[in-house]
Amino acid sequence: MNKKVGIICVLCFFALFAASALDLYLTPYVQGGAGQASGSLLSGRGDFYAELGASSGTALGSSAPFYPILLLGAGVDLSLSQGKFFLWKGPLSFVAGLDAGEWGGAVSGSTAAGAAFASTRARSMAITLSADERISLNLGPGLFSFELGPFVGFNGGYLVQEAISGITSTTWLWPAFADIVFVGASLGFDYGFRLGPGRLRLGLRGDIGLTPLSSAAGALGAEIDYPWRAFARAGYDLPLGAKKAEK
User: Fold this and answer.
1) Dihedral angle of Cα 23, 29, 32, 35, to the nearest 10 degrees
2) Is residue 103 part of a domain?
3) 71 has which bridge partners?
4) The domain containing residue 119 runs over which residues?
């Protein structure tokens, strides 16, 4: 019974937008790129690696640099524009999205001679909800779009991987209450090509956290501050509303 009620509600939702003459698009996408974060957790491991490298007898002055790590994600956007009841006209539209992906940072230890001997990777598995303003312009055979807006992230837990001299350990930690939510801002560019009934979108996106990913009072017992991610993204617009994709 509850399942039937849910299906009816979803159908009524889409019918309402169609009746309002809104352009409505659903855009599933995949993305891949790199990211980084700093903070007391990674800085502490870096200091430890520097001391460990210096005391190994190789040479004094060993370094522990931070480096970006590979991050992956997938999500879906719902965009709406035009329509007699919509607040913005012309090239502006509103985009709400959900992304399941990784956040985090890494640090490595190396001797003064440049030989790496240790590393720590701390990744947060998070879901982010975004609300972007999009401006789209016809450019050549397709549609160029620019997006900007805030997001809120919900931390699902930490995967901490450490390797020292070939010995690797992996730890999974559930988030504490202080770690669950973080917020940030997003900036994106893409270009859409007409393909079949919808539109293929290829673009770039950057996310930056404006609050710590991990709190000192959280599960890690140390902060991971202000993470960033840079992605290449591929998605496909599925037209669901009153108008079809632009030709």
Assistant:
1) 50
2) yes
3) 33
4) 2-239
Burial zone of 172 (CB within 10 Å; 0-12 exposed, 13-18 middle, 19+ buried): exposed
Quick: pLDDT tens for 136-170.
888 888 889 999 999 999 999 999 999 988 888 99
Q: How many domains does the chain have?
A: 1
Instruction: Assign 17 to helix, strand or coil.
Output: helix
Q: Is residue 99 part of a domain?
A: yes
Q: Which two three-digit tokens encode residue 30?
A: 């995949």
**What's the pLDDT tens digit per position in 7-50?**
555 544 444 444 445 678 899 999 999 999 988 999 888 888 88
CA distance 241 to 52: 61
- Whether 189 and 164 have beta carbons less than 8 Å apart is answered as no
The CATH code of the domain that includes 40 is 2.40.160.20
Residue 246 in any domain: the answer is no
